[in-house]
Amino acid sequence: MRQIAVRNLHNQVIQEIGRMIVSGEIKPGELLPREEALAQRMAVSRTALREALKVLGSKGLIETKQKTGSRVRDTRYWNQLDADILAWRCASMPTEDFVEKLVEMREIIEPAAAAAAARKRTPEQLARIKAAYEAMDAAADLDAWAKADLEFHECVLDAANNELMGSLFSVIDTALGAYFLLSAKTAVDFKYSLPRHFAVYDAIRLKRPESAREAMHGMIVDSRANIKGRGRARKSAR
After folding, report:
1. What is the pLDDT of residues 13-56, one digit of tens each?
2. How far apart (Å, rounded) are the C-alpha atoms in residues 60 and 219?
3. pLDDT at 93
4. Between the CA of residue 8 and those of 1, 4, 19, 47, 175, what are the distances in Å?
5. Burial zone of 213 (CB within 10 Å; 0-12 exposed, 13-18 middle, 19+ buried)
6. For residue 2, what pLDDT band results from cuts at 50, 70 and 90?
7. What average pLDDT score do residues 76-80 get?
8. Are the beta carbons of 29 and 63 closer than 8 angstroms?
9. Which residue of 39, 96, 173, 205 has the fewest CB atoms within a 10 Å radius of its CB?
């Protein structure tokens, strides 16, 4: 029990400092408080604090030097696909910069994955894509929709039969889940993109790679326009 308590406390320190860094509360180039003061503030031992700082250092968030202490590194050094960093970024969504970068990554990966799925999917994989689509159609609320939406895109990537794509999805699924929920929240009707999802499914069913690619790209472009348009509407209403 003692080990579990120490481990939980250690993780709590990682989560709190990591969130402060990623949210911009502590900015790149800034020094963290001195070790003794930080340990006292967080009510942990200096040993536990040092171990937590080592973890944050391994994620690229900070660098620690003997004489100067721990400093937040520039964002280009952060391990942006680290699960914790993605979760901390998602916790502060929506930020326009992060959303735009996530959309750019989707534009690169997902249309190609849809085309590959249309070429290589198995009957079982197609059935899973269809089941995810039907779950979206049946969703009664935003949370159910976002969960089914994430499942749909995961099934499409799985049907591409490329383990590298699958591994990438397992890393970014937290960010995509938050993105899909945000997109649905900003729409007048959260099921507005259902016809576009059907178009992707149907192209994969008919084994038409270019149609699948175009349908997925159209879905991503439409989602970006929806988020940006609602964002502009909120600003103008202020």
Report:
1. 999 999 999 989 999 999 999 888 988 988 888 888 989 999 99
2. 34
3. 60
4. 11, 6, 16, 14, 24
5. buried
6. very low
7. 91
8. no
9. 96
Please check whether residue 84 is in contact with residue 158, taking contact to mean a CB–CB distance below 8 angstroms. no
CB contact set of 10 (below 8 Å; sequence gap of 6+): 44, 48, 51, 52
Nearest to 202 by CA among 192, 190, 215, 189: 215
- Band of residue 1 on the pLDDT scale cut at 50, 70, 90: very low
Burial of 138 (0-12, 13-18, 19+ CB in 10 A): exposed
Supply the pLDDT for residue 101. 82
Amino acid at 27: K
**Looking at the chain, how many residues does it have?**
238
Query: What is the residue whose two structure tokens read 């895109």?
Result: 153
- Residue 161 CA to residue 195 CA, distance in Å, equals 25
